[in-house]
Amino acid sequence: MLKRFFISLLATITGVWISVGLFFLLGLVFVGVVAAGQDSSTVKVDRHSILYLNLNGEINERQTFGSILEEMSGQSSGLSLADITASVRAAATDRNIDGIFIEANGATAGTATRLEIIQALKYFKETSEKWIVAYGDSYTQGDYFLASVADSIIVNPMGGVDVHGLAATTYFYKGLLDKLGIKVQILKVGTYKSAVEPFMLTDISPANREQQELYLNQIWGDITDVIADGRGVDRLTVNTWADSLVMTADAKTYVPRHIVSSVEYRHAAIDMLKNLTDTDSDDDLNLVSPEQYVASAKIPHTDRTSNNIAVLYAVGEISDAGREGIIGPKMVAQIEKLIENDDNDGLIMRVNSPGGSAFASEQIWEALERYKATGRPFYVSMGDYAASGGYYISCGADRIYAQPVTLTGSIGIFGMIPCLEGLLEDKLSVNQAVVTTNANANFISLTEPMNAQQTLHMQKMINRGYEVFTSRCAEGREMPIDSIKAIAEGRVWDGRTALSLGLVDRMGNLEDAIADMAQELNFTSKYTVTAYPKLKRDIWEQLEELQSTGLIRQYLLETSTDPTALLIREAEKIKDWAPVQARMIETVIK
Q1: Beta carbons of 151 and 132 less than 8 angstroms apart
Q2: Active site residue: 388, 394, 410, 485, which one?
Q3: How would you class 561 by CB atoms within 10 Å of its CB: exposed for 0-12, middle for 13-18, buried for 19 or more?
Q4: CB-CB contact of 533 with 326 (8 Å)
Q5: CA-CA distance, 78 to 55, in Å (whole number)?
Q6: Please, are residues 371 and 397 in contact by the beta-carbon 8 Å criterion?
Q7: Residue 405: its pLDDT value, please?
Q8: Distance CA 470, CA 460 (A)
Q9: Which of 42, 421, 466, 539 is the most exposed place for a label (fewest CB within 10 A)?
Q10: Do residues 213 and 167 make contact, with C-beta atoms less than 8 angstroms apart?
């Protein structure tokens, strides 16, 4: 007995020391990765430098730090929209930057994100006499949309340009759920509130088809206008390209059709850039990425002054708890710090969110109302999405800015409660016995369906949430409640239509919102723009999380493209949802 005790004790001590050793080793490796990344981020911006926009990977709202596993595996955390637009605008007046080189490598970004970069590139062209050159082995439609503003567009002779129009794809799970014996109990308000459709239908509803056709056609019209303007053709011509499957055509036919400027291999494009920058043929081009440029150069609004505008980023799904996206308690705490901090003269919230928890959305809305009560201005700048809960937290702003291609609105509420009774009893032959003290003691249950009384009360709660949501919108937009309800019902609107309906105030990007707030605050001299929440890399917190198998499992799930992993991701996401949701349907637009 004593021998077993000492063996167990020794094994425990050994395990602890091994864990400590591994933990320390991982820390050294991670710190080394971080240090290497920091060393490579700073370059010298010499004469004849080129701002290099490598359209590769995901374009995020702002620079983010990846997880420790991503850092150690060398995976990029993606490009930063904030870095790209700031560097492009700063490069317009930088004598060391001769021009911009855009390389199309299949970036992932929303249409509004791309449009914001296009607007910065147009500013670059309009305020300087510098050039923009784009090259791609092949162009995705999104990359071509962005590159269309370039003076010269070059494509590889064996490549193509994809212009095909827009399509929205929604995946429906009801057939699978029926086979598994899972019933999803739906409670909602709003004819157009389609986020629940994948779990209750096998095909798109007429209302959802109607709203998707409207905003897709509106957004495609804006995309074709940008491409047509950049290539010196009309909108009809761009639609002809789309309808003729131009991506399958021989690249040699692109030049006479004005799709591209020339058809060349990449080395010819590099030689062209060398000529434009007076670089010797044997020398390398001095290509500077936006991240490097922002780190090395003095960009606008970075001077420390007594005039300060706070930009609060609200990006991702809205949740009551968790690590990713807009976490209600964390966002409220951040807003409260801004309320207490007199150093900021005004607040702009940058919203890029399809919504989420109705409870968390209400808490954030209320905190923003307290900020407004300080007398300081509060604006909202919308990105790709500001829908449902994303609109909930936006509606109280003094001014709302959106892009024409922003998806917003979706003012509606729903609740979704899965019931696994059929799966357990019919498919797995698992039975249960429940002993209760009261009629509703087992409510809410994932293994028993709601009865009529429970369904009635749940629907009343959903209705009450909808009334609160619409009243917040009516109050914030200074519109009659009936007018709000007429355009609510969960309907999604494009930014341009939302402007005509009064849901937003102006078409514009974040830079426009900042400039207008500076004018309202009478900032005639320099001013500072400070981004929140402050970015920080908590190495030890991530190392502690890495010790648990949960993080490794989550990483594998998030990076896997296996259909099973996709289904597990969807199920885990729904599992963590709050009972009442203000969320837009997740739709793949391509």
Answers
A1: yes
A2: 388
A3: exposed
A4: no
A5: 10
A6: no
A7: 97
A8: 15
A9: 42
A10: no
Per-residue pLDDT tens digits for 8-52: 544 444 444 444 444 444 444 444 444 444 444 557 899 999 999
Q: How many alpha carbons fall within 13 Å on the CB side of residue 342?
A: 0
8 A C-beta contact, residue 112 and residue 403: yes
- Told to judge if 429 belongs to the known catalytic residues of this protein, a careful annotator would answer no
List, for residues 307-346, the tens digit of each pLDDT value.
999 999 999 999 999 888 999 999 999 999 999 999 999 9
Cβ atoms of residues 480 and 502 within 8 Å: no
Rounded to the nearest 10 degrees, the angle between the axes of helix 539-547 and helix 549-559 is: 90
> Cα 111 to the chain's mean position, in Å?
11
Give residues with Cβ within 8 angstroms of 248, minimum separation 6: 160
**How many CA atoms lie less than 13 Å away from 82 in the CB half-sphere?**
19
CA of residue 207 relative to chain centroid, distance: 26
How far is Cα 297 from Cα 91, in angstroms, rounded to an integer?
Answer: 9
**For 290-299, what is each residue's pLDDT tens digit?**
999 998 866 6
| Lookup: tokens for 242 | 């789309």
Given the residues 130, 193, 274, 485, the one annotated as active site: 193
Paired residues of 80 in beta bridges? 60
Q: Known catalytic residue: 388?
A: yes
Give the residue among 346, 389, 368, 391 at the shortest CA–CA distance from 520: 346
**Cβ-based neighbour number of residue 193 at 10 Å:** 29
Whole-prediction pTM: 0.86
Outline where DSSP puts E strands in 361-468: 378-387, 399-402, 407-409, 413-419
Contact call for residues 416 and 196 (beta carbons, < 8 A): yes
Interatomic CA distance for residues 287 and 282, integer angstroms: 15
- pLDDT reported for residue 243: 97
SS3 content of the chain, % helix, strand, coil (to 5): 45, 20, 35
How far is Cα 458 from Cα 464, in angstroms, rounded to an integer? Answer: 10
Is residue 219 within 8 A of residue 495, CB to CB? The reply is no
Rg of the chain (C-alpha set) = 27
Distance CA(284)–CA(277), nearest Å, equals 11
Bridge partners of residue 102, in order along the sequence = 53, 134
Is residue 323 a contact partner of residue 541, using CB atoms and an 8 Å limit? no
Q: What is the pLDDT of residue 39?
A: 43
Q: Which residues contact 72 (CB under 8 A, 6 or more apart)?
A: 29, 30, 33
User: Measured between alpha carbons, how far is residue 449 from residues 177, 446, 463 in Å?
Assistant: 15, 8, 20
Return the SS3 of 107.
strand
Please report where in the chains the tokens 């009972």 appear, as a residue: 579
User: Which residue is it, tokens 């490549």?
Assistant: 159
Strands 492-494 and 588-589, by their bridges, are unpaired
φ/ψ of 135, rounded to 5, equals: -135, 145
Tell me, rounded to whole angstroms, the distance of Cα 491 from its chain centroid: 20
